[in-house]
Amino acid sequence: MATASISLRDVGRTFGATRALAGVDLDLKPGVTGLLGPNGAGKTTLLRLLATALPPTQGQVRVLGRDPQVSAQRTDIRRQLGYQPQEIGFPRGFTAFAFVDYIALLKEWTEPAARHAEVRRVLDLVGLSDLSSKRIRAMSGGQRRRVALAQALLGSPAVLILDEPTTGVDPEQRVVLRTVLAEIARMSVVVLSTHQTEDVAALCERVIVLDRGRVRYDGPVTELTGQAAGRVWLADEPDPAASVSWRTGTGRYRNVGGRVRDGAEHVEPSLEDAYLLLRGGSPEPETAGEVAS
Amino acid sequence: MTGWHLDDDALRRYVERTDSLAEGTSAEQHLLSCEPCRARVNTAASVIELSVIDIATVWDRTRDAIEVPRPSVFERLLRGAGLPAQEARLVAVASAFRGVWLTGVAAVLAFAALAAAVGHARGMWLFLAVAPVVPCLVVASSYDPWMDPALEPELVTPYPMLRLVLLRTVAVLALALPAVLLSGLLIPTEVPFAWLLPAVGFVAVVLAASTWFSPLRSAIAVSSVWLGVIWLLALRSGAPEAVLQARAQAAFLALAAASFSIFLVRRRRLHQLRPWR
Amino acid sequence: MDSRPGDETLLLAVAERDMGAFRTLYERHAGWLAIRLARRCNDRDLVADAIQDTFVAVWQKPQGFRGDGDIAAWLWGIAIRRLVSRMRTRGSVVAVFGDAGAAPAAEDQVLLSVEYGDIGQALARLSPEMRAVIQAVVLDGLSAKEAAQLLHVPVSSVKTRLYRAKAHLRAALAEGSS
C-alpha cells in the first residue's frame, strides 16, 4: 500500500486581479504539518486547493497520486479526504448527530447501522458523545468547531485538512486534539492552519510558513526554532533594531533579533521567536562593534 | 429518610413476584422514596434469570429513538417514489423541503385565491407574475449556501453534486404539480397550467446561471426580470392569455432546453467552490 | 454518595440535551421500573417497549416534572401509562397481582395487620380480580378507562368491581370493629 502523499508543483491561484498563491512547491507525507501565516497569507486558499475544493489557476496538484482536475480521480481522492473548513454555517434544526450523519451519507456510508456506529465513534473522538442530540445552533463556538472536526474524521481519511481547528478551543480540548491527530497522523497526511505558533509547537512536526501567497519556510519545527538560536536575549531596555521586543513580567525586555550586545543574557528561543524573526526579515545578526554600512 | 429498608428476603420475593399484595404494595411505596433500595432492586433484577428486560438492548433502542433523525414527510414520499433510502434522505434534507417549499405552495395558492377573488384580468396578471417564479426560487434555495449553509464539507465528499442538485430540482418540480392542480381548481381557466412551462424554463435558467453566480441571486434576478415583463405586458395588452399562446409556450420550452444544455456543459463548476458571496 | 448528581440535577441536564446525564438516569431507574411493570403485565416485550417509551418521553419533556414529590413517583406515573398505551393494542395476559386464591401465609397476616391493620386483612380476602382493580385504580392511580385497558376488561367491569371491592372492604371493616 502506497504511503499517503500530496505534492504541489509551482502552484498558483488568482482571484480576478488578486494573486492569492504563487510558486508553491510542496511534498507532504504522513504526519502533522502546520500552516502558519498572518491573515491574508493564503492559508485558506492553499487548504481549499489541497481539499480539492478549488482548482489551481496554474501548476499541478497531486493528492494520493491522483489529479483533482480529472473527475473520476477527484471522486477517488474525496473518498479518502476529510476537510474541516474555517466556518460552517450549520443548517437550522440539525443536531450534532444529524449533521455528521448527513455528511456520512454523502461519504457513501449507506448502511444505517454501520453509519450510526461511525458517527458515534467520531463524536466520541472529539468529546461530543454527550451532546449528540443537542442542536448545533444552541452550541458554543468551540463545540461547533468540534462538530466540524468530527465530520472531517469520518472514515479515518488518508488526507485530513483542517482550517484553524484550534480557534475557540480551550486548553483541555487542545490536548484531546493533539492525541487524536497524533493517532491519525501515523498513516495519514494531516495539514492544519493556524496563526498561533503555540499550536504549531504543540501539534506539528513540520511547519510551512506562508506570507503573501508564497512559502517562506518549509521544514521541521525544530529547525525553524533553531534559526532563532543566539538571537533572543534579555536587556534592561528594548532594542530599536530588534524585530520585536517586549517587556516581560520581570521588568526586563526580551529582544528578538537586532544588535545583540556582548555578554547579553541569551534566552532559549521559542518557535514564536523564530517566526517573528522570519517575518521581520532581519538579515545577518549584528554584534555591537560592527558598524552598519 | 428513615432507617427502615427492605430486607434481602423481602427484596428477593418482590423481584421474583412471590410475595403478596400487601407486601408488594409496601415494598413499592418504600421504593418510591428510597434510592438505595431501588439500586438493590436494579442489581437483583440484572443478576437473576428472571431479569425482565435486557437493560442494555432497551438502552440502545431508546438512544436510537432519540439520536437518529426521523424521516420527514418528504423523505418518505421520495422513498415511496422509488429513491433508495439514503438518497431520499440526502435530497429531503435541503431547506427547500423544510418549509420553504410549503411557503412557496402557500404563496401560489394565495395568489390563485386572490386572482379568483379580485376578478378576471387583474387577478390573472397577479397570478402569472408570481406563480412561475416560485419553483425556481425554491430550487435555488435547495442548494444555495445562504439558505443551505454547510456547502464546503458537502462539496468535498464523493457524492456527485450534480446528481444532488438535479434530484432536488426534480423533487421540487414534482411537488409543484399538486400546487398546479389545486390552483386549477381555484381559477377556472387554463392559466394555471400555462404557468408550468415558464416555471420549468426559469428553473433551467437558474441552474445554468448558478454555474456563474449564486443560485439564489440568479433566481432573484430571473424573478425580477419576469415581474418586469409581466408588468409591461399588463400595461400594453390586456389579456393574460397571451402567455397561453403556442408561440409563447414554445419560447419557454426553447429557453428551458437551451439553459439546461448550458448547465450540462458547465456542470463541472458545481464540483468546486467558487467565491459566491 | 454526595458526589453523585441527584435525579433533579440529571433532569436539568437532560433539558440541556445532555445524553450522558440521560443515560445515568436510565441506568438508575430502568431496572426497578421494569420489575414493577412486570408485576402488572407478564409480556416482556411490552414491558421493554413501555420502558423505552417512558424514557423517550422523559427526554422529550423533562420539564414535565414539576418538582413536587419524588422523581421516582413521576417516572412510575409515566411508565404505567405507557404500558397501558401499549396494551391497548395487544391482547396479552395480565399477571394478576399476588398469589391467586391462596390464603395469606402466617407471616403475611402479621405483616398485614401491622402495616395496614384491618384493611390489609380485608384486602387479602378479596378475589384476585378485585385486588387487581384496587391495585390499578387506588394504588397506581389509573383512571377507570386506563385500568380497563391494563386489565383487558370493559370499563363497566372495572367500575363494578371497584364498587364491589369497596363494599367488601367496608363490610369487612365494620365486621372487624364490632
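qc> Confidence is low (pLDDT under 50) at residues 282-293 of chain A.
qc> done
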